[in-house]
Amino acid sequence: MTHTVFGIRHHGPGSARTLERALHQLEPDTILIEGPPEADALLTLASDTDMAPPVALLAYVPDRPGTAAFWPFARFSPEWRAILYARERDIPVRFNDLPAANSLVQERRRRGKVQDDPLGALAEIAGHGDAERWWDDVVESQREGLGAFEALIEAMEALREAFPDEDPREEQREASMRQQIRKAIKDGASNIAVVCGAWHAPALTQLGPAAPDARTLKGLPKVKVAMTWVPWTYGLLARESGYGAGVDSPAWYDQLFDTDDEPVPRWLARAARLLRAEGLDASAAQVVDATRLATALAGIRNRPLAGLDELLDATRSVLCFGSELPLKIVREELVVGHRLGEVPEDTPMVPLQQDVSRLQRRLRLKPDAQPKEITLDLRKENDRERSRLLHRLNVLDVHWGEPTEARGLGTFKEAWHLEWQPSLAVDLIHAGRWGTTVEDAAGARARAAAKDQDSVAALATLADAVLLADLPAALAAVLQALADLAALDRDTADLMAAVPPLAGILRYGDVRGSDTSAVAGVLRGIVLRSAVGLPGAGVGGDEQTGTKLAELVDGVNSALAILEDPDLTRAWRESLRRVSAGDRLPGTLAGRATRLLHDTGELTSTDVANAMARALSPGEEPERGASWIEGFIGTSGLVLVHDPELLKVLDDWIDAVGPDAFTNVLPLLRRAFSVLPAGERRRLGERLKRGAQAAPEEQAPIDLDRARPALETVARLLTCQ
After folding, report:
1. What is d(CA 137, CA 139) in angstroms, rounded to the nearest whole number?
2. Is the separation of the CB atoms in 69 and 59 below 8 Å?
3. Count of other CB atoms within 10 angstroms of residue 645
4. Which DSSP symbol is given to 582?
């Protein structure tokens, strides 16, 4: 026979070990492996010393990089072991499947469970919950090679007959596989090993005439594709890919591949070490007890060997004391895992990918599949360059890192959340149309985005991103587009939304030494126009409009506080006065303006009490009054705790609201007070319990003798030169 078919389980360590034994018995002169034939030229890289699985073949359409597919491999994947077997013996090895040029055109249909994982289906029929442990029991324990696969083909024939796959794409794939086998025979091969998914094995044992297969493949649509290797992760092996369904437990399979005997106690010992590293109790005696429990559970469930289900149940009961939280740690590390593969430097890449890889090495910012937090000190050149790289990649929509809020870091520190996903390789290919280096591509992308934007707020956000990315030429183009659009924009809400990012540029831009002088003039015009337009923006609007405007008002107010520009602050507060006094504006907006003026000392408590009384007067709709309260309270109710007069006005208004109106305003009031911290709500309740007009709690008199040392220290600090 010229060819032997090995039906394997994709990413199955048991299949991988059995396949290696079978290949040593067969000693083939050619190996054909399920996969896209366009990747044949990349197989030489598989044996490179710098290639570290998990990795994946990436096929994409150069004109449409978003159209892509992955074929992943782990070190325990049978296909990967077959590739290494061929490379070590210098025998021909090729991929054997429908070309990616055809498969990327077709919409992939979801296959049934049996077709996706036929070995898993056999294990389930046999009453075993873990396909790999079932394989170990029925195949590995027999130490067979070729005989195991011959028996498997018979089982697959029965499954295919009972569960036929009507997807025409599968028929095309198997026709293409047979054609590739015929081609290998024509090229002179006489002892071919065909490695494919177990489901396809019966369709490849007998080739039959070539004409029907040629007709099946004739006229299939196709596109031009490019292929490369990309790093992969164990986490992504659990997702669907070019091989269909993935595996749920790659880290567990990794251990099964390495461990021929006693996998249960070895895994439980690793779980105990992991829990101890997390500061949790896990003794050697517990490992022994957990091993016994896992074995006993397998017996109770009529399973010959303990599998992952039994291991997790035993871990939960014995090592985690019934808690799911520590078990989650075990799942993440020892069931799924965080391993990220590596590819050699000479792997085909688009120029932009090469530049990113070069920068990652130079800046010592290695990609990692495990999420991590880093803090950059922008006073250090290397950290500044790291920051530029991450911000420039974000401009290109390659989101390797996301900035995070970190308290107490100051303006010279920057916190990031980093997580490298293999799909970012596709994003880099897609971004490659903008340029060959990160700097050039990000600048071109920013300039193109500036031309396409029709929102002042969006342009302001873009300007902030471009400044952080240190792209001065692109920043000039974005600011010019912003100035041109702002001059014509009559949408006050859009103008106000642009203020915070522009203020951030002025306030923090100089940390990186960037020139932000051009931003000041644009921001000044936007703030003044916002101040003029705000009183009329909400006239006649509903409370939803009022809530949106109140949020924007908060943003502008906070931005002006950090700018410390007296002229802009004066104009803005005058606008807030007009809003506070407006009768036709949404209650949320008017209440928010009143609160901000009170917090800055522009309105006294008496002024606020009068404004509140007016908003809550019988002539006003109760719903508007409740919205006014919601806007006034915002996220802090301390003003009501410390001002009995305001609390009395509110208390009297609630007493005066009729039953029907009270039902309508209750949800608004509940929402207003629910955002307050529990401590503030408790203090309000205590104050109301004593009576709204009760005097504030008396404080103990100050002990001057105890305070004198502190006062002397403060005096010295204030008078020091």
Report:
1. 6
2. yes
3. 14
4. -
Per DSSP, the residues of 293-304 read: HHHHHHHHTT-S
What is the distance between the alpha carbons of residues 263 and 685, in angstroms, rounded to a whole number?
60
DSSP string, 203-250: HHH----HHHHHHHHTT------EEEEEE-BHHHHTS-BTTBS--S-H
Its pTM stands at 0.71
Q: Assign 695 a pLDDT band (cuts: 50, 70, 90).
A: very low
Kindly report the three-state secondary structure assignment for every residue of 634-700.
Answer: CCCCHHHHHCHHHHHHHHHHHHHCCHHHHHHHHHHHHHHHHCCCHHHHHHHHHHHHHCCCCCCCCCC
For residue 636, give the amino acid letter.
S
Summarize pLDDT for 486-497 with one digit per residue, the tens.
Answer: 888 888 899 999
408 vs 176, which has greater pLDDT? 176
Sheet containing strand 93-95, strands side by side: 3-8, 192-197, 30-33, 93-95
386 vs 362: CA distance, rounded Å = 10
How far is CA 349 from its chain centroid? Answer: 24
CA distance 470 to 482: 18
Task: Supply the pLDDT for residue 1.
Answer: 62
- How many other CB atoms are there within 10 angstroms of residue 323's CB atom? 11
pLDDT in tens, 639-686: 777 777 777 777 777 777 777 777 877 787 777 777 777 877 788 777
- H-helix or E-strand containing 610? helix 605-615
**Three-state SS at 195:** strand
Are residues 442 and 474 in contact, defined by beta-carbon separation less than 8 angstroms? yes
**What is the pLDDT at residue 702?**
75
Structure confidence at residue 406 as a pLDDT band (50, 70, 90): low
Answer for the pair 71, 98: CB distance below 8 angstroms, yes or no: no
**The predicted structure's pLDDT at residue 556:** 92
* Phi and psi angles of residue 692, each rounded to the nearest 5 degrees, phi first: -60, -30
Reduced to 3 states, what is the DSSP secondary structure of residue 2? coil
**pLDDT tens digit sequence for 107-140:** 665 555 566 667 777 777 777 666 666 666 666 5
